[in-house]
Amino acid sequence: MAKKQQSDGGIVETIKTVVYALLIAGLFRTLLFQPFWIPSESMKDTLLIGDFLFVNKMAYGYSRYSCPFAACPIPGRIKVPLLSGDPQRGDVVVFRHPVNGEDYIKRLIGLPGDKIQVKSGMLYINGTEAPQVDAGVFTEIYEAQGSMGNSPRCSNAPVGNGGTCEKIRAIETLPNGVKHDVLNIDMNGYADNTDVFTVPEGNYFFMGDNRDNSMDSRFAQNVGGVGMVPAEYLVGRADRIMFSSAGSSLFQFWTWRADRFFKAVE
Questions:
Q1: Catalytic residue status for 40
Q2: Which domain holds residue 242?
Q3: Which of 143, 169, 238, 260 has the smallest CB count inside 10 Å?
Q4: Is residue 5 part of a domain?
Q5: Model pTM?
Q6: What is the pLDDT of residues 203-241, one digit of tens each?
């Protein structure tokens, strides 16, 4: 009987340990980090389809806890002033779309009060051009990519399946000195020439690094774009890629890209 009680007690303790571990893991995810898988090519070549990363939810001094109801568009927030930091121009940020509630990832370009414009494919912030220098050509295989199975857009289109897809690459420097790659597909695309956008107080302006393949703040929300994003919709900053899959699933480990393990997001 004593041995049976010990055995039952061991099972109970094991169950308790598992439950506690799950609770701690859930709390860790809810308050500190959120996993994110890149589904589209809007942030190439900074982020590739299939990159798996964790979003630092404490980067801006608050964390989002999960909303228990699907109808709740904005989960509650916990403010942690000691860990606070303002979003910086050039940060790669995950945010919740103000209309459809989906998570998006883009680069923060415009801060509250900024005037943003794109002219002939060049970014202007408060009337000053963000300079670009040539960085060669970004190439990839023209084929279905990721779980969505979309084929990439190419500056050298048309490209047959299995062919080499090219995009013109440049290094852009933002006013605070942040340098990052941008890709160009069209020489005079729809969003290569825009009106001047004035970012309202408490809002932010985002753009994808793959400039001709990103529905971002250059596009109004009523046509499927991001528009201006209020601060309370920010989820956190993407700091580091954990691993990356070139296949249609994260679990196809044989397709993992060896050069992207623990790669910093810049």
A1: no
A2: 32-264
A3: 143
A4: no
A5: 0.81
A6: 999 999 999 999 999 999 999 899 999 999 999 999 999
